């Protein structure tokens, strides 16, 4: 499946689940696709940006990158989160005001960068990699609860 058909598929499934359904994994996937669609549409507005969406790497440590952009002799990784509401950030996880916990997206982003650096090293490609975390939902707010928060923002 490609991005559009995946999104349509999950969007069709959404009508079968109520908001309070216990199957958070599918609901989170749907929200993730919504956020990625927002970023994808934004990137498409700028025709000169070379990017690839939803890359899955099968390596020593398999990993996935939401968006990979190659520009100005550098690579940028975009990790998109479409969380809504208020969140507290801790060193290893983030938590919503509804007490839903998710692994820290900063850790995911850092792992993606390290794994991509390893692949580029094996290919003898020496480009700097910048990583960016994008919160695509306008209702998202962050409350930082950990030391060295300036490293992330």
| Distance linking N and C termini | 34 Å
Compute the CA-based radius of gyration: 16 Å
Ranges with pLDDT <50 over ≥5 residues?
none
How would you state the average pLDDT, rounded? 82
Spatial order of the strands forming the largest sheet: 1-2-3-7
Sequence of secondary-structure elements = HHEEEEEEHEE
Say how many strands there are: 8
Structural class: alpha/beta
Whole-number count of domains: 1
- How large is the share of residues in beta strands? 25-35%
Biggest β-sheet description: 4 strands, mixed
Shape label: globular
Query: How many H/I helical runs?
Result: 3
Helix content: 25-40%
Organism: Mammaliicoccus fleurettii
InterPro entries: NERD (IPR011528), Restrct_endonuc-II-like (IPR011335)
Domain NERD: 31-139
Protein name: NERD domain-containing protein
Structural account:
With 153 residues, the protein is α/β, with parallel strands linked by helices. It has one domain. Helices cover 33% and strands 31% of the residues. It is built from three helices and eight strands. The strands form two sheets. It has a four-stranded mixed β-sheet, sandwiched between helices. It has a four-stranded mixed β-sheet with strand order 6-5-4-8. Helix 1 packs across helix 2 (24-44). It is globular and about 45 Å long. The model has no long low-confidence stretch (mean pLDDT 82).
List keywords for this structure.
single chain, 153 residues, alpha/beta, 4-stranded mixed beta sheet, 33% helix, globular
């Amino acid at each position: 499946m490609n991005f559009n058909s995946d999104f349509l598929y999950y969007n069709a499934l959404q009508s079968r689940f109520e908001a309070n359904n216990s199957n958070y994994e599918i609901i989170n996937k749907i929200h993730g696709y919504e956020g990625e669609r927002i970023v994808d549409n934004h990137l498409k507005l700028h025709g000169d940006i070379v990017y690839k969406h939803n890359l899955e790497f099968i390596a020593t440590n398999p990993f996935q990158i939401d968006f990979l952009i190659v520009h100005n002799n550098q690579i940028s990784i975009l990790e998109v989160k479409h969380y809504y509401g208020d969140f507290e950030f801790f060193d290893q996880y983030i938590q919503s005001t509804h007490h839903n916990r998710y692994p820290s997206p900063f850790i995911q982003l850092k792992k993606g960068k390290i794994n991509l650096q390893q692949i580029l090293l094996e290919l003898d490609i020496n480009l700097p990699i910048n990583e960016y975390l994008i919160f695509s939902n306008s209702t998202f707010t962050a409350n930082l609860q950990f030391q060295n928060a300036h490293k992330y923002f």
